[in-house]
């Protein structure tokens, strides 16, 4: 049972919140590379990770997921 739980955590992704700096770096990178080129986005923001982040913190899948979350939670300017 513990193995299944651990696997589910890995599939879902990291649960710690992203810092404001990391979110800004993500948004800036998406603005430059587009929201279809997650390889470039992931590579570009890796140097801006907060200390102690795991190596896969900015994986392509996690970046895409976080960007989608940001779009859902951000209000559009009027």
From TrEMBL:
GO terms for cellular component: NuA4 histone acetyltransferase complex. PANTHER family: BROMODOMAIN-CONTAINING PROTEIN 8, BROMODOMAIN-CONTAINING PROTEIN 8 ISOFORM X1. This is Bromodomain containing 8a. It comes from Lates calcarifer. The lineage of its organism: Eukaryota, Metazoa, Chordata, Craniata, Vertebrata. The gene is brd8a.
């Amino acid at each position: 049972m513990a193995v299944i739980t651990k696997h589910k955590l890995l599939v879902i992704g990291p649960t710690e919140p992203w810092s404001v700096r990391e979110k800004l770096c993500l948004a800036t990178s998406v603005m430059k590379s587009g929201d279809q080129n997650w390889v470039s986005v992931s590579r570009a923001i890796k140097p801006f990770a907060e200390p102690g982040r795991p190596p896969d913190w900015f994986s392509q899948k996690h970046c895409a997921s976080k960007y989608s979350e940001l779009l859902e939670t951000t209000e559009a300017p009027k």
